[in-house]
Specification:
2 domains; 182 residues; single chain; mainly alpha
Length: 182
């Protein structure tokens, strides 16, 4: 995460610049890195201690507030909407996603229907991960960005993206007989 060129954006808004010659540019390497770290997190057995859940909740809240605050500050200073702090390769997004994953694992077991939905998403996680960015990009291109009412827009975008991602991931899963990507 330290070699991620977007990490410097966290400090840039406070006046500190971090120009490193050792940064890895391009988001593909971070998608791969985050996928590997996510797979490793899936194999780790976290203690069933309340403190793990509290740290996960705190991480989600702090990273979410930082993403929102930095986005707001960047938008105000630039005069146009600034989305670089919640891009897919952002360290804050990764920290929030990992903490959410840990929180869900710590909270279970869930009631039957919720458990089945979570199991389906877990089973299709690799194709979902590969497809959701394209779906979000398509939603953006077709005008699905009404930031005047974020309380409605964010959950609606999540729901639409999740439904389409799961449907397409299921098709990939059915077509991928050798389980190369599913």
């Amino acid at each position: 995460m330290l070699l991620n060129p977007r990490t410097g954006l966290l400090f840039e808004s406070s006046g500190v610049t971090t120009n490193s010659r050792f940064s890895l540019d391009g988001t593909s390497i971070y998608y791969l890195l985050f996928a590997v770290l996510g797979a490793l997190a899936g194999r780790v057995r976290f203690p069933s201690d309340r403190r793990v859940g509290i740290v996960a909740v705190a991480t989600v809240i702090v990273s979410g507030c930082l993403i929102a605050g930095l986005t707001y500050a960047g938008t105000r200073s630039g005069g146009k909407f600034e989305d670089r702090f919640y891009e897919y390769a952002s360290p804050l997004v990764f920290a929030s996603a990992l903490a959410t994953f840990i929180l869900i694992r710590q909270t279970g077991p869930f009631p039957g229907s919720v458990q089945r939905c979570l199991s389906l998403v877990a089973q299709l996680s690799l194709p979902i991960y590969g497809l959701h960015a394209m779906i979000l990009g398509a939603l953006r291109r077709f005008g699905m960005r009404d930031f005047s009412n974020a309380i409605v827009e964010i959950p609606m975008t999540f729901f639409i993206t999740m439904v389409i991602s799961v449907a397409l991931a299921w098709i990939v899963h059915l077509a991928d007989r050798r389980r190369l990507v599913s």
